[in-house]
Amino acid sequence: MENMQNQIETLIAQLYSQAKLMSPPEFQAWAMTETAELLEFDSGFWTDGIPPLNFVSLYLFNQPYEMIESYTRVLETGAQDILAAKTNENLGQAVILSEIVYPNLLDPNFKSHCLKYGILQAISLGFERPGTQLFTYITWYRNDLNRPFNHQDKLIKQMLDPHIRESYEICLLLHIQKEVGITSDTSSHAFAICNDTGNIIYCNNRFILDARLENGIINGFQVAPDTWKKLLSNEHATINIDELHLYKIDDDHYLVEIRTEQNPLAVLTEREQEIAIKLALGDSYKKIALALARSPSTIQNQATSIYKKMNISGKHELTMLLQPTTQAKELSD
């Protein structure tokens, strides 16, 4: 298990480094291929979405698109996807199909579909992006009844999949910034990708933070309707101390940037700002260390430096400072 742990940590570090070098489609293919080689699964899918259950992207790994068409037809017969249902009920926890239903108890139409597309073993994880209601589902398949997924696979999946999502988000935002002509260093800026009605579908950690600091920007996890109208007509808007700028990606998608003049993190370096945001969103030293290819002790030392520079006592005060007062009661409960 220790050797596997080292391999997982290496892969996580590679996810964040490769995210800055590849296009989004290249990155998705690379990430799933590397994960499949390490965990020995044969195919799978990865989908991201927004509430209540609207899917905004779908990536199929070693499966044809007709698999999704077949799956849709099976559901139309009234068959239930038991794995999907259990995954929805247990967000944040990996679910193995063979642990919740015997193969001979599967609906005949669903069983036929699984046999046709080599779905003999399956493990799925659904989770929400920290600080948001954006969700991700990643499912792995094995085409062999004699290679079941196990408890170790569950633990690895729960460790790895959130990093796959976050690194892809970094890749996507960097790619789109270049597409719309943003060439300056924006690593500490707040960005989100929205659909044509202002629903946020992808964003970076800084956007989550800045959106929380200004309740006038976000309504739920949608740009407030009045603000969205201003952005569509003028391509910029001012909300208290913040400026919002809008960049059109295509007819259905936009990039939104928040520019904040008064930033409580201004006294920190860019790397310290990144660590502070992750701490405020609840990430552990170990998780941050994996994402930044550093040791947990290094992150802990940097956190101490952050608290000293900001003249605060620790993580709790940092979290309170970087979230609006409407969040404070939730944090103390």
Largest sheet features: 5 strands, antiparallel
**Helix content range:** 40-55%
Could you tell me the CATH topology label of the largest domain. Beta-Lactamase
- Radius of gyration, in angstroms, nearest whole number: 21 Å
Separation of the first and last Cα atoms: 37 Å
CATH homologous superfamily of the largest domain, by name?
A: Transcription factor LuxR-like, autoinducer-binding domain
The count of β-strands is 12
The amount of beta strand, in percent, is 15-25%
Q: What's the rounded overall pLDDT mean?
A: 84
Structural class: alpha+beta
Just name the CATH architecture of the largest domain. 2-Layer Sandwich
Number of domains: 3
- What letter string, H or E per element, gives the SSE order? HHEEHHEHHEEHEEHEEHEEEHHHHH
